[in-house]
Design goal:
Layout lengths: L8 H14 L16 H10 L5 H12 L5 H5 L3 H8 L5 H18 L8 H5 L6 H10 L10 H10 L7 H11 L8 H11 L18 H5 L4
């Protein structure tokens, strides 16, 4: 159950301070969920990851990039080849159409170069706020807290944000999180969400921020 209010700025800073000490953060082995060798493949991977498990997305991207690695290369493939390659990630017919639109836009409007700004990325077909932020953070090294399912859940449980959608969570984090937390914040939150603040039966008793967490307080176990 999401919190119905937000912690104070001092409490939010304390939460990030504690998570920075409890979680490994951006280490060499802590790669982004869309870890790809170039911006184009990172964007493609993001699009294919929609409503797909990471393992299925990896299989789909590996199979697609074995056939083509550039906008021109993908456009040279027929729809059946693309759809067959990306089938493991689901919604493969719609995603095939999205990939064609993406590649066409990159060629015709961006000289085959992936934009490095959020607005530029979101102008591409199939790219929303989450995908844009992931590419900016993991491909271009921007200090941005990209919001996925884990980050969205954690932020609204604790009280870092009070948002209904991942995009709203991302916007509120930009306002609420301390500046120093943006570089590693995504990693701390996603690691915390996978290890302690899990979707079902969160491990509240061992949580390093349970005395501040609005969810923990609301359950009456504090």
């Amino acid at each position: 159950m999401a919190a119905n209010k937000v912690l104070s700025s001092e409490e939010i800073e304390t939460v990030f301070q504690r998570l920075s000490k409890a979680m490994p953060g951006r280490t060499k082995t802590a790669k982004g969920p869309k870890d790809q060798p170039d911006p184009f493949r990172s964007v493609v991977s993001c699009i294919l990851s929609a409503q797909s498990r990471d393992t299925n997305t990896k299989t789909a991207t590996d199979q697609l990039f074995a056939l083509a690695k550039t906008p021109d290369g993908i456009l040279a493939l027929d729809d059946e080849k693309i759809a067959t390659a990306i089938k493991p990630c689901g919604l493969y017919n719609n995603k095939t159409k999205s990939l064609r639109k993406l590649c066409t836009a990159l060629i015709e409007k961006h000289d085959r170069t992936v934009p490095q700004t959020r607005d530029g990325l979101m102008s591409l077909p199939g790219v929303g706020r989450k995908c844009a932020d992931i590419v900016m953070s993991f491909t271009f090294g921007a200090d941005i807290i990209a919001v996925d399912t884990h980050v969205h859940r954690v932020c609204n449980r604790i009280g870092l944000t009070d948002a209904k959608t991942a995009d709203q969570t991302a916007s509120q984090l930009e306002q609420n999180a301390p500046d120093w937390a943006f570089h590693d914040g995504h990693f701390w939150l996603i690691q915390f969400g996978k290890k302690i603040c899990v979707s079902r039966k969160p491990k509240c008793e061992t949580c390093p921020v349970n005395d501040l967490c609005l969810y923990f307080t609301a359950t009456g176990t504090a």
